[in-house]
Amino acid sequence: MKAIIIEKYGGIDQLKQADVPAPTPKSNQVLIENHATSINPIDWKLREGYLKDMLPFEFPIILGWDAAGIITEVGDDVSQFKKGDRVFVRPATTNQGTYAEYVVADESLLAPIPANLDFAEAASIPLTGLTAWQCLFDSGKVKEGDKVFIHAGAGGVGVMAIQLAKNAGAYVATTASSKNVDFLHSLGADKVINYEEQKFSDILENYDFVLDSLGGDIQEKSFDVLKKGGRLASIVQPPDEDKAREKGIDANFVWLEPNGEQLQKLGRLLEEGKVKPHVGHSFDFSEQGLKDAHKLSETHHAKGKIVIKIK
């Protein structure tokens, strides 16, 4: 099968097209003919070698952790899905990712693709949707009436987090460049701070929860907008434990855990129109297509998700 691989860490030139054997599903797995995948910052961070200690994979590595396609083979112990089912998934984190024509995934991680989504839209959801879900609800305990602040609202996680928080009944503030202010209001954000003109730390106070997707100085200043007893979840770096303790904040680093049950809940919200996918950019499934997609993701200025159309 065709796949885009890396054989060593480095820049975008390490992305190479290769012909590799199609994976074989185990008894609890399915084989998916992959119709679309998407790009996430973890892809190029791993490609550059930033995560080699955390994820010590053997080469060659197929990157990618979103898949949407059709089941072509089921293992002997699979009971909830069958050949021909349209599914989307954030598979287990291995060196055999989703920049490939075929992907295997555990049955427990699968979800049916909502009838109103195409494969590209479905592929935009799993990693960012689950990340937003686990930050908001598992770590942040966000509930109706909470004041929620989401950094980088126009990014993949931000787009999902705004919609999920609003659906839960929270008041949502977020940050954006001037070109994305109207877009984020259209997602339901109550307050959109143009970071080119204003500092969030001068405006916000007494918030219940912050989702930090930027780290560094931004994370440091985020503590100041939280009330005592508030919560902070970061997806980029572990928060300062001493500062959190000093301010009475529950602060956590969230590393996504694939979860089929949560993905199925997301699927129902998508089918009901309560949450919508936002594919901002799409590229073809080729060596150059993946290089261009990585280059865009590295700018941190992609709007919504970057999708790769395989079929």
From TrEMBL:
Keyword entries, A-Z: Oxidoreductase
Annotated Gene3D superfamilies: Medium-chain alcohol dehydrogenases, catalytic domain, NAD(P)-binding Rossmann-like Domain
Single GO term (MF): oxidoreductase activity
CDD domains: MDR_like_2
E.C. numbers: 1.-.-.-
InterPro entries assigned to the protein according to its UniProt record, in alphabetical order: ADH-like_N, ER, GroES-like_sf, NAD(P)-bd_dom_sf, YIM1/Zinc_Alcohol_DH_Fams
Enoyl reductase (ER) domain ranges (all copies): 10-308
Stated name of the protein: NADP-dependent oxidoreductase
Species: Thalassobacillus hwangdonensis
